[in-house]
Amino acid sequence: MTTGRDGGLLVVGDVVTDVVARHRGPLASGTDTAASIRTLPGGAGANVACWAAHWGCPEVRMLGRVGADAAAWHERELACHGVRPRLVVDAQAPTGTVICLVDRGEAAERTFLTDSGACLRLDPGDWSDALLDGVAWLHLSGYLLFSEPSRALVAAALESARACGVPVSLDPASAGFLVGLGVERFLELVAGVTVLLPSRDEACLLTGLPDTADAAAKLSRHVPLVVAKQGADGALVARSGTVRARVPAVPATPRDTTGAGDAFTGAFLATLLAGAEPEEAAAQGCRAGAQAVERVGGRPPGSR
What is the H or E stretch that residue 72 is in? Predict the structure, then answer.
């Protein structure tokens, strides 16, 4: 599956404000826990867009919905990473906010408290077929599947992409939210997607299988290409019911694992669009993931 398509990448998904609190050891219930706290731009969709641009994708666009409270800031932050923002400003809901509790221990594990705010209020009225003009690939954040308005937008986007011959990728986004949505419903909603990029937990949840390789293989009977992200264990590439490649991770010393999967996805898509095979694209994804975990927050370094 070599792509090498002319045109840009359109990412549709969440743009949120991350409040990252890095603490060491267990939280002290009912009293204070010392932490280093930063407010940063985030959102799975927006992170993917920034990493794709950082990894050399020449044109990346981002469709999302934010509140008036932080619209200008998020537009600037996306633009400084080389992403062309198309942010719908919601007159009623504030920008989504995620509190990321990051344990400063060896694994840098994180826990999210999520207020989706305006993110999940994207709806079909925010979509236009013209958004695909000059677009070679459409990527959808799985968070869009967790509300009725944004599910309807996903259906409209998939229909448009199918009509235009634009391939579509999707990252399931959250094992916790998938439990509420249901596996069968999820598989119905992603019918027509070309590439699925689940985490290990998401792949196992979606198949009921405990082994990630078995889960990726099973999912690849529903979606043509499945790339399962396994963190420190690298990634798996599966097609037609078979795991075709096991891609090793790049060694890293984690500080904050927030956005590592988004970094993988952004670099994977940028490399795929440049004409590489999925196995090489997954290797680049692992490189980006390693860079991401050594940084605080979900965005790449520097700006354009």
Answer: helix 71-80
